[in-house]
Amino acid sequence: MRSIGLLGAISIGIGGMVGGGIFAVLGEAVSLAHGATALAFAIAGLVAIFTAYSYAKLSVAYQSSGGTVTFIDKAFGDNILSGSVNFMLWLSYLVTISLYATAFASYGATFFTHQSTFLTHALISGAILLPAIINLVSASFVGKSETIIVVIKVSLLIFVIIAGASYVDTERMSPDHWSSPLSIVVAGMIIFVAYEGFELIANAAEDIKNPDKNLPRAFYASVVIVILLYVLISIITVGSVSEEVLMKAKDYALAEAAKPALGQTGFVIVSSAALLSTFSAINATIYGNARLGYKIAKDGKLPHALMSSKNDVPFNGVIYTTLFSLILANSIDLTEIAIIGSASFLLIFFIVNISAYTLRTEIHASAFITIVSTLLTLSALITLMLHTYNSNPHALIIFATFILISLLFELIYGRYVRGQIFQRKYRNTHKH
């Protein structure tokens, strides 16, 4: 029974994108693009809208809760690439949870007079552990609360835009205050993780009414709306607050952007909304990643330990997601998490765009658009990697480690353990 209409599908996409991302990465974008921050968000949005085309076409043709996983399997079959990407996707969601938890801690710390490393780690850990407990106790709470929280956070961003519009000094955004073209593009790629959530629409494809029309509309509408939101928020932030102040408040830049128009009250309101948004984003991502692990494990592509379920809750999936997220969030800084998260999703979206090109006849997709989408994501990824090699090699090492772990996992588990399981099943079936 299909129960989600067009507006519901659009809200899934907006909710996935306007999670904790904008609160976490706005300061990163300003530090690199300076007066051209709005342009950096627009460039990242361009990559997202082209990739959304591939997702729209694939989602209509292959309606499955597997989403990204299903598309890559359809294009490449059961091989080392599809198996590695399955695991890479699961790891990438751990990174986004870490990003949201780190942002939660940054905004949460503003409510305390005395700040310390202990406080930061306590806030990061609490931001992951409490949603995990909610997931284990009441899975239905996650779904019921998400729509309300999406409305609250989008309404708040619109309120900040309207309130701050008259305080914008356009001189701060003149080309004289822009970074180099390469730095602007790099800024867009580092904050790309703020756009990745649109792919969640694909996971809900089976539940969306009139999917042939509503799926493409939902993808395009949600991405365009979020591009506009991010660009306008960037204009308000850079145009109304000096860069010196923004850099001091880099990890909670959006709260600082509310100050000129709304004073300290605005700062507190935005910080509170950031806590709510990042908390709900962690809640929803733990929920989604535990179920992704459950589905992939059910298909035999992840260990069966992830299939443990109690009262319709993938218990082990929640536990493993929580444990690894805690380790990541407490050991990597915000800049590195943003880079690794953006790079991971750019790599996955690059493979999805190749999948759309490979399946273009079956899904009735334009060869030209899918080629452009593929080249855009590849160029974005290469640009980000080259910059990271020079500026933050540690983040590059962690990202390379993620890829290596995914490949080794598929080589060892996929080719040996899973192969042995299926061989035993085959022999047992033919004995009878």
If you had to describe this structure to a student in words, what would you say it looks like?
With 432 residues, this protein is an all-alpha fold. The chain has one domain: Amino acid/polyamine transporter I (Up-down Bundle), CATH 1.20.1740.10. The protein has helices at residues 6-17, 21-33, 37-61, 68-76, 80-109, 117-137, 139-164, 181-190, 200-203, 211-240, 243-248, 253-257, 259-298, 315-329, 334-358, 360-363, 367-391, 393-431. It is globular. The chain starts with 5 loop residues before the first helix and ends with a helix.
Quick summary of this structure?
With 432 residues, the chain is mainly alpha-helical. The protein is 78% helix and 0% strand.
How much strand content do the residues show? under 5%
Indicate the CATH architecture. Answer: Up-down Bundle
Q: Any idea how many domains?
A: 1
Might you state the CATH topology name? Amino acid/polyamine transporter I
The number of distinct β-strands equals 0
How many DSSP helices? 18
- Overall geometry: globular
The first-to-last residue Cα distance is 37 Å
The pLDDT mean sits at 86
Order of secondary-structure elements = HHHHHHHHHHHHHHHHHH
Helix content: over 70%
User: Structural class, please?
Assistant: mainly alpha
The largest sheet, given as strand count, sense and whether it forms a barrel, is:
none
Low-confidence stretches: none
Radius of gyration: 21 Å
CATH class: Mainly Alpha
CATH superfamily: Amino acid/polyamine transporter I
